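The methods section describes the discrete structure representation at length, but only in general terms. Since the whole study asks how a given chain folds, the encoding of that fold should be made plain. An entry of this sort, consisting of the sequence and the corresponding backbone structure tokens, reads as follows:

. . .
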Amino acid sequence: MRYSGWRRPRSAFSLVELLVVIAIIGVLVGLLLPAVQSAREAARRSQCGSNLRQLGLALHSCLDARRRFPAGYLADTASPARDPDTFDAAPGTGWGLAIAPFIEEAATATAYDASAGVAATSNREVVSRQLGVFLCPTSTGPREPFVVQDESGAPHASAARLGRTDYVANAGHEDPWDTAPNASWHGIANGPLYRNSRTRPADVTDGLSKTVFIGEHSQALSQKAWAGVVPGAWCQPTDKFRALAGSAPEHAAAFVLSHSGPAANEQAVIHVPNDPASHCDQMFSEHPAGANVVFGDGSTRLVAAAVARDVWAAACSSATGETATAP
């Protein structure tokens, strides 16, 4: 007589046990995901700060070579072909292109025909280049070059295409591009970098370590260009922000410049970084903690979105004597 061997009953998870395990995994993922996202954002913010440090060093290399900081952008405001609304004219060369030789982009600077200007057909390939040092990795805005537009949003007559940047220069409290046209912005713009500025360290009497020179403006909000300005063009907000009250198109200066307020034509409003008003000509970052900025001494700092408005305004002027501590 044969006897079958004893078989141990096969064990298995019950449905309840499986549900418990799934629930535990879900809780762990829920706990870990924010930490992972936070770590990734910290790395992106660090890379953004590194980009700005390079730009800050390039500002000082330019200062050493030319005995002054680069202009926010250059324009022959006496030209008969100037834009009647702003007095912008060629060449339109921006601060980003001016420091190109000092950020290992000497070939880009050499290929640019400064006498022809940013809008010239001969410079289209150069000014449409996308340079990584000008892009914040946190920015969710577009990356491809954009065709400049007129106020209505139609393509501008120049048909120029500009490479993007997430960084802009600080012109100070006022926005001269939105006021009555003036051939010179000296005495109007009280920041360090503006149209045809010739700023030297001695001009920044508030102190280089207390004056903002460059900061963030995410392409998610509006168009920004590292190469410079096309006279008569307009900086357009993205579709995402176009519906917001402050997001109207701005004159071409806003491709490369920002202002903080208080401005006479804006009811003395001060735009701190990441201000939800979302003007095309303010500093604006997608970092949750604030915005990276470069001060005149080359130092890079994160300015909290909750910075006191008077402190931010004081940091954005060069020689007005405010006593507020730098942010």
In short: The first strand starts at residue 73 and ends at 75.
